[in-house]
Amino acid sequence: MVKLNTNENPYPPSPRILELCRNMDWGQLRLYPDPAAKVLTDALAAYHGLLPEQVFAGVGSDDVLAMAFLTFFHSSAPILFPDITYSFYPVWADLFQIPYERPRLAEDFSIVPSDYFGVNGGIIFPNPNAPTGCAMGLEQIREIMDHNRDVVVIVDEAYVDFGAVSALPLLKEYDNLLIVRTYSKSRSMAGMRIGYALGNPRLIGYLNDVKYSFNSYTLNLPSIYLGAEVLKDETYFQETLRKIVETREWVQRELRALGFIFRDSSTNFIFARHRSCPALKLFHALRKKHIYVRHFDQDRIREYLRITVGTREEMETLIDFLKQFLDAD
Ligand SMILES: *Cc1c(COP(=O)(O)O)cnc(C)c1O
């Protein structure tokens, strides 16, 4: 099986984890974990050069994002997020009965900053955006921030480590900016369920108020310790990222040679359509060969497939199959 459908990292996390597991005092598991997950939030604060009060940790970024929707989005004005974006945003908005509007991405899938200048109850977008893989520059994010001083703006940086610019430097300037990150993609730890938010201490305080009214013990003990430990192995992390980016650049060249059309990816996936072969036909042919990619049955993107960048070997399997299939087609 070649699993290229959920944007997981094909490489294992740092081997430091094994060592910590061997030395961990497992007897501690009888106790509740630290509800503040201080070992982890302190380590993240040091890693990003922030204060511990600027970090909130949760059970994957889905948990952090859902908590942020619940905490910050309760205006009668609609929140704004792109028409093509992470599929969970409308789900949470519906669940929490938050009104929303979805400005249309430009034809080339860019986010248009001026679409986010009107009256609204908050803004959220991923940078780079998912599933398009397109990144925005800091200046465009700054434009959105400058037009939105009285609502919370969330930048979901799930894929930022693969080559986009982080909004982190803007935290000093904007007290209404919340950046959300995850360990599931670049950090190779989707199975641990760790996500976090970075922002002004007041925003982080409000997130904690809501969390403590809901479920205090979110992160489990191994997640807290292992999440802090992997931050110490920057060399391994950078090497993993380098391998994925290198493979991505190779796959992009191969896919273009095979007639696929797409914008350059700033992530660990490629969002592409084929110039003649229908997306669903490719999707089913790949699935028959146990190569799994993602298709979205949604307006404007029905002809696209989202393909995670796996190991070089996995991507060679994909490309070899596509060569054969498209040749015979
Ligand atoms: C994967 C993903 C998430 C969720 O990540 P978890 O930390 O695994 O919950 C959030 N936002 C975007 C855009 C993602 O792609």
Question: Can you describe what's shown?
Answer:
The protein is α/β, with parallel strands linked by helices. The chain is built from 10 helices and 13 strands. The strands form 4 sheets. It has a 5-stranded mixed β-sheet with strand order 2-8-7-6-5. Strands 9-10-13-12 form a 4-stranded antiparallel β-sheet, covered by helices on one side. A two-stranded parallel ribbon has the order 1-11. The model has no long low-confidence stretch (mean pLDDT 97).
Helix proportion: 25-40%
Strand content: 5-15%
Distance between the termini: 23 Å
Principal-axis shape equals globular
Number of continuous helical runs: 10
Oligomer: single chain
Give the radius of gyration. 20 Å
Question: Overall pLDDT, averaged?
Answer: 97
Q: Spatial order of the strands in the main sheet? A: 2-8-7-6-5
Task: Name the bound molecules.
Answer: pyridoxal-5'-phosphate
Describe the biggest sheet?
5 strands, mixed
Give helix and strand order, one letter per element, not per position. Answer: EHHEHEHEEHEEEHHHEEHEEEH
The tally of strands reads 13
Unreliable residue runs: none
- Class of secondary structure makeup: alpha/beta
What topology does this entry show?
Blueprint: E1 2-3, H1 16-23, H2 38-48, E2 55-58, H3 60-72, E3 79-80, H4 88-95, E4 100-101, E5 123-126, H5 138-146, E6 153-156, E7 177-182, E8 195-199, H6 201-212, H7 221-230, H8 234-257, E9 260-261, E10 269-274, H9 279-288, E11 291-292, E12 294-295, E13 304-308, H10 312-328
Parallel strand pairs: 1-11, 3-4, 5-6, 6-7
Antiparallel strand pairs: 2-8, 7-8, 9-10, 10-13, 12-13
